[in-house]
Amino acid sequence: MGRIVVVNFMSIDGVIQSPLSPDEDRDGGFSHGGWVPPYSDETVNGVMERVTVDAAGMLLGRRSYEILHRAWAGVDETEPAIAAMNSMPKYVVSSSPLDPAWRNSHAVGSDLRAVANDLKTRTDGDLVVFGSGTLVRALAEHDLVEEYRLLLFPIVLGAGKRMFDERARLATFALSNHVTTASGVVVLTYTRNQAP
Fold first, then answer.
1. Alpha-carbon distance values, 42 to 49, 157, 176, 183, 185 (Å)
2. 196 pLDDT above the threshold of 50
3. Considering only CA atoms, which of 11, 9, 7, 8 is closest in space to residue 158?
């Protein structure tokens, strides 16, 4: 049985928008893009590589799929994480047609509960969600996430898209692992407690 695991870079004030490059996502006039690289160190990179290599597939929102596709499709696959990302199944939640140009990409419907349950049944391992703010908020609203792996960066951005909103359902998680990097990033793993 598969699990949905959300893996996200997050500022202290909860922003997840445009972490890797200035032009990644300027929605709402966001001008602080590229806030993660100054803190990326061997530990951060190692965490992301392990998460990617160990994943059974990705579950992505349309916009994150397009950003990741532009960044990684066709890139030299000598690095294990790049090879894994390019070859693993990619399930894209989208209400409009998808051009599945990125190898092993599949459009899935927008009935999130049905999609999640179907993918969990058919998957042996973790379905990771990178970025995908709208999708993450919808998953939280339907209580469909088994684990959050949050990389908390020592920066306050003040504005930008947040990971959660008021629609999230009550759900409890246990801190199952934590690591602090030399650059001050705290990697927090929260695993879902069993529902009462």
1. 10, 24, 21, 10, 11
2. no
3. 11
Long-range contacts of 171-174 (CB under 8 A, 24+ apart): 171/140, 171/143, 171/145, 173/147, 173/148
CA angle 173, 175, 179 (to 5 degrees): 145
Report d(CA 50, CA 53) in Å as an integer: 5
- Position 103, amino acid: R
User: Does pTM top 0.90 for this prediction?
Assistant: yes
pLDDT tens readout for residues 89-111: 999 998 778 877 899 999 998 88
d(CA 115, CA 94): 11
CATH 3.40.430.10 correct for 3-192: yes
Yes or no: say if 56 and 124 are a contact pair by the CB < 8 Å rule.
yes
Torsion of CA 37, 42, 44, 46, to 10 degrees: 130
Answer whether 3's CB lies under 8 Å from 147's CB.
yes
d(CA 75, CA 99): 19
Structure tokens at 56: 């059974």
